[in-house]
Amino acid sequence: MSRARLSRGTPYILTATEVEETLKHLPPRIELAVAALMNMTVDDWRKQESKLRVKQIVDYQNAGSVAATLAASARAIGDLEAAALPAIHPVENTDTLIDQVIDGLHRRGLVVMNPVTAKKGA
User: Would you say the pTM of this structure is higher than 0.85?
Assistant: First the structure.
C-alpha cells in the first residue's frame, strides 16, 4: 500500500483503491467498528454497495485529515506569532519606556534625546 502524507500534522491518507482492498479483508469486529463510525448497524453497512462503503470511508478520512490539517495550521500560526511578535507588556509610564529605549541607544553609541523631556525643559 502506498500512502501519501499531506504534512507532518496530518495522518496518512489511503486512496479509494486502498480502502476498497482493505474493506474486502476486514474481520467482523473491525467491520462492526467501521459501521459504528458511520452510525450504522453492521447489517446496514454490509447491505450497501462496495463503492458506497468506499466513498463513506474516504469521505470520513478526508474530513479527519482536514481537521488535522487545520489543527496543525493553527498550532503553526500560533508558534509563528509567538516567535515573530514579542509579548506586549502594558506600559504604565511611557516616559520611563522612552528613557529605557534612549539609554539602550546611548549604550550603543547613539546620541538621542527624549522629545517629551526636551519639550518639558524648554
Answer: no
Rounded-to-integer distance, Cα 71 and Cα 76, Å: 9
- Is residue 50 a contact partner of residue 23, using CB atoms and an 8 Å limit? yes
Are residues 93 and 78 part of one domain? no
Q: Which pLDDT score is estimated for 58? A: 87
Q: Over range 17-27, report the average pLDDT.
A: 88
Residue 38 parent element (H or E): none
Do 70 and 10 share a structural domain?
yes
Question: Where are the strands (E) in 1-71, listed by range?
Answer: 4-5, 12-13
Domain identity same for 52 and 78: yes
Determine the 3-state secondary structure of 98 from DSSP. Answer: helix
Beta bridge partners of 4: 13
